[in-house]
């Protein structure tokens, strides 16, 4: 930690780049934890920047330890960023009413924000508990993930753990994750999050140097859905089909139902497994949850048949109850409608002339999705579909 109470009860913060002679003066004094009032040790070694620490026998619950050099440096830089931009900021304040001590507490436009720079994994339970404590106290939490934790798979493809998905902010229309690198003195925004599976997302890194950026970027909200990865998505979707033919297991409910219905992953229509707005809510891959919608609600309907939105919702809920469709835990995007991506998918099928809008809560089957009869036809149908999608997006 970088702040403590002195013998007079005042909160003090260790200055940045403190000279050795002044450090000796600081080490001659006594310091105490604002949370538990235990005496602290002022550490000033060759590796970490000077900081306070509890003794090994401490049972303090208001502050987590140990802290890495990366974390100490990161929160100091973020704190200075707020101060340089004339935003009222407190370093590691102890909020006694909720027994929490955020890395930084800022006050901006009549709203308080708890800034948490997270460099190591914690349990989902702890993340949710801390988030709820801030929210119940009227403080908006802003979780910033250590940039070094982000795993890039390919160009514009990233692998996110269930823990990292918890950091999703902004809106379901334009979800993103804030990351920070104290080594580079830069924020990196992973956006827009466009999940292909429970872990893999298509995204791009937006680089935000602290030196020429105002912190209000942390509070901005973008409600416009954009999709920048149409060709990469197509390649990934095709790779899924090829891989699934070799590895699909009949004990998997999705593949079991697929084969029982007479479908092979290789011949599954390309209209199943498309990117749509709001699908960040759903942890299950788009191929699977859209496949369930198709098999449960569309497959056996004749052209001209009506299908009711309420029936689609009910079928979707049944798959959720069985654990065959799973939603993500997104505590920073609360209260979102789990059917939003379903609506977006039905709207897309309407634009693709598979469905026709038949009035409020009603769709009409306009064209049937049927398996191709050859690999050439399969390729042609895929080309036609993605050509239409590209035009829609552009």
From TrEMBL:
Domain Competence protein CoiA-like N-terminal: 17-61
Domain of life: Bacteria
Competence protein CoiA C-terminal domain mapped to chain residues: 243-368
Competence protein CoiA nuclease-like domain location: 67-220
Designated name of the protein: Competence CoiA-like predicted nuclease
Organism of origin: Peribacillus huizhouensis
């Amino acid at each position: 930690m970088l702040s403590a109470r002195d013998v007079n009860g005042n909160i003090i913060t260790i200055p940045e780049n403190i000279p050795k002679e002044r450090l000796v003066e600081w080490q001659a004094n006594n310091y105490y934890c604002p949370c538990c009032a235990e005496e602290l040790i002022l550490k000033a070694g060759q590796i970490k920047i000077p900081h306070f620490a509890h003794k090994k026998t401490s049972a303090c619950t208001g502050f987590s330890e140990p802290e890495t050099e990366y974390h100490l440096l990161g929160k100091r830089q973020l704190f200075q960023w707020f101060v340089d931009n004339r935003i009222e900021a407190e370093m590691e304040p102890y909020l006694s009413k909720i027994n929490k001590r955020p890395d930084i507490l800022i006050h901006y436009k009549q709203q308080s924000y708890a800034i948490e720079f997270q460099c190591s994994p914690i349990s989902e339970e702890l993340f949710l508990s801390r988030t709820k404590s801030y929210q119940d106290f009227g403080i908006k939490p802003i979780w910033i993930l250590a940039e070094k934790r982000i795993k890039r798979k390919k160009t514009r493809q990233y692998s996110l753990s269930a823990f990292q998905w918890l950091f999703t902010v902004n809106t379901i229309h334009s979800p993103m994750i804030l990351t920070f690198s104290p080594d580079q003195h830069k924020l990196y925004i992973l956006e827009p999050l466009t999940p292909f599976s429970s872990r893999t997302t298509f995204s791009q890194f937006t680089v935000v140097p602290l030196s020429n950026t105002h912190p209000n970027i942390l509070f901005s909200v973008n409600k416009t859905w954009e999709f920048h990865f149409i060709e990469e998505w197509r390649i990934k979707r095709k790779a899924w089909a090829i891989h699934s033919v070799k590895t699909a297991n009949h004990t998997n409910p999705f593949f079991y139902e697929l084969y029982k219905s007479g479908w092979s992953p290789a011949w599954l229509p390309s209209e199943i497994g498309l990117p749509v707005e709001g699908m960040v809510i759903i942890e299950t891959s788009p191929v699977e949850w859209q496949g369930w919608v198709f098999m449960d609600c569309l497959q056996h309907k004749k052209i001209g048949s009506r299908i009711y939105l309420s029936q689609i919702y009910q079928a979707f809920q049944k798959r959720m109850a069985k654990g065959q469709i799973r939603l993500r835990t997104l505590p920073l995007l609360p209260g979102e409608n789990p059917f939003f991506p379903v609506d977006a998918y039905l709207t897309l099928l309407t634009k693709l002339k598979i469905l026709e809008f038949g009035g409020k809560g009603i769709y009409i089957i306009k064209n049937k999705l049927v398996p191709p009869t050859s690999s050439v036809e399969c390729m042609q149908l895929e080309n036609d579909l993605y050509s239409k999608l590209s035009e829609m997006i552009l």
